[in-house]
Amino acid sequence: MGVARGMCVVTEELYTFSMINTAIGMVLSIIFNYYLIPIYGAPGAVVATLGSFLISTFVIDLFYKKIRWNALLMIRGIFTFYKLKY
Hints:
Blueprint (H helix, E strand, L loop, with lengths): L1 H11 L2 H26 L1 H22 L1 H15 L7
Helix pairs in contact: 1-4, 2-3, 3-4
């Protein structure tokens, strides 16, 4: 997901947006870790990491019009694996 998102950021020249989004993800990670690690330990750290990643990679992108199309493509790409038949 990071490679696909990075290519979109470079193509659309959204470097400032990327920096702000990374900073938001960092702050969310610190806040989630601060509250979840004392309660749940290592599983709390995993949940905090996944939560901050999902918010900074998908949720924030859905609210910014210039990169929304890429977020929708990434989400659609995740769900294509459910259509596979063996």
